[in-house]
Amino acid sequence: MARSVDHWAALAASGMTLAIYMGKTIAGPTARKLVGRGMSPALPVGIVVNAGRSDRSFHLGTLGVMAAGEVEMAGGPAIIFIGEAVKHGDWAEATAIAEQTFKVA
User: Fold this and answer.
1) In the predicted structure, residue 36 carries a pLDDT above the cut 80
2) What is the pTM assigned to this prediction?
3) How far apart, in whole angstroms, are the C-alpha atoms of residue 51 and residue 78?
């Protein structure tokens, strides 16, 4: 995991947005390691739980909040996005857009 976190931190430092699939159980420890490797605790974080289901939920926060374990992610699997692009996304309309655009088999 340490090697992955170093790689993720380098990618995020370049300005790229990270997407961590199935990351709910490692969210807090990973965020702490990324902050420890110099990433800003103010970096935006967006989380989608149950992305392909009608009961999906969206959560916004920061890397620091996630590192402190204060992000609630109840339910199923989660996709975690970390980076500046998160704050520019239209999370309020995400459900409607997803329902019109994506099909899950």
Assistant:
1) yes
2) 0.76
3) 7
| CB 66 within 8 Å of CB 45 | yes
Give 85's DSSP letter.
G
| Tokens representing residue 93 in the block | 């309309």
3-state DSSP call for residue 97?
A: helix
List of residues 6+ apart from 40 with CB closer than 8 A:
63
Closest C-alpha among 20, 69, 28 to residue 46: 20
d(C-alpha 25, C-alpha 71), whole Å: 12
pLDDT recorded at residue 105: 47
Overall residue count recorded for the chain in this entry: 105
**Which backbone phi and psi does 53 adopt, to 5 degrees?**
-120, 160
Predicted local confidence at residue 41, as pLDDT: 94
Calpha distance 73→58 (Å, rounded): 9
3-state secondary structure of 95: helix
Task: Decide if 35 contacts 63 (C-beta within 8 A).
Answer: yes
Which residues make Cβ contacts (< 8 Å) with residue 27, sequence separation at least 6?
Answer: 20, 47, 66, 71, 73, 78, 80
